[in-house]
Amino acid sequence: MDAVMELFRSRLAERGIPLSDRQLEQFQRYYELLVEWNEKMNLTGITERAAVFEKHFYDSVTLAFYADLSTASSLADIGSGAGFPSLPLKICFPQLNVTIVDSLNKRITFLKHVCTELGLESVECVHGRAEDIGRLPKHRDGYDIVTARAVARLAGLSELCLPFVRKGGLFAAMKGAQPQEELDEARYAIRELRGKLDKVETLRLPEEQSERAIVLIHKTESTPKAYPRKAGVPLKQPLLK
Fold first, then answer.
1. Are 76 and 54 in contact (CB under 8 A)?
2. d(C-alpha 189, C-alpha 171), whole Å
3. Does residue 34 lie in a domain region?
4. How far apart, in whole angstroms, are the C-alpha atoms of residue 241 and residue 238?
5. d(Cα 171, Cα 63) in Å, to the nearest integer?
6. 41 inside domain
7. CB of 231 within 8 A of CB of 132?
């Protein structure tokens, strides 16, 4: 095992997330596939190995520092892109039933290939717009945890994500630094979509020291029938007062 993986393993172990050799192998293979496929489609601007392990893999797993994923059974990742944060979380918490929603079919093809190569089971990759998928009975009001990482401003993002969260479940928006302005803007949308802000956790990536914030919102009731609105509307015309 080299220094990059040793550091990655020790940093997660410090947060109570031990990784087996098999899990480390899965992360290494994920990295290889990411770089390989990135040559033919735009998955990430970050390809240097140590940077991928910190800025994609470690950053994704930070959600588990503040939400109890060891007892959760289902997680939905909206606008997952190259599989962040859902696939690193799935590797660390194999019991999770994961649903990934992404509007670009090429990315869905990549994610399915990663799951096959890594031997990840109980991962459903869904091609479609969150506004459409969030209206399907199979997915609506159904997930313990719903997350999105660096997708959109919180007011619009809440309308994409909260319809997937079960009553009593958690929506975790993974943001960059200083989300207060977005939070202020999104208060009406969160309330209208039957969410309640729980807390905002902040951290810094250990090497790069860039700031991150995780906004934790609990779902208080089922989603009103009016939401989500038609595809494209939530981000163009977010629910504002």
1. no
2. 13
3. no
4. 10
5. 11
6. no
7. yes
- In the sheet that holds 74-78, the strands lie side by side as 123-127, 97-102, 74-78, 143-149, 165-175, 211-219, 195-204
Residue from 25, 134, 145, 137 nearest 96 by CA: 145
Examine residue 27 and state whether it is found in any structural domain, yes or no. Answer: no
- CA 128, distance to chain mean position in Å, is 16
Residue with tokens 């031990």: 18
Return per-residue pLDDT of the chain as tens, 241 residues: 799 999 999 999 999 999 999 999 999 999 999 999 999 998 999 999 999 999 999 999 999 999 999 999 999 999 988 999 999 999 999 999 999 999 999 999 999 999 999 999 999 999 999 999 999 999 999 999 999 997 789 999 999 999 999 999 999 999 987 888 999 999 999 999 999 999 999 999 998 889 999 999 999 999 999 999 999 999 999 999 7
The Cα–Cα gap between 129 and 196 comes to: 24
Residue at token pair 């809440």: 158
CA–CA gap between residue 135 and residue 141 (Å, rounded): 9
Is there a contact between 196 and 220 (Cβ–Cβ < 8 Å)? Answer: yes
Residue by residue, DSSP assigns 50-108 as HHHIIIIIIHHHTHHHHS-TTS--EEEEET-TTTTTHHHHHHH-TT-EEEEEES-HHHH
What is the count of structural domains for the chain?
1
The residue type of 168 is G
Tokens of 42: 């735009």
Would you say residue 84 lies in a domain? yes
Range of the domain at 66: 61-236
d(CA 31, CA 21): 15
The CATH number covering residue 114 comes to 3.40.50.150
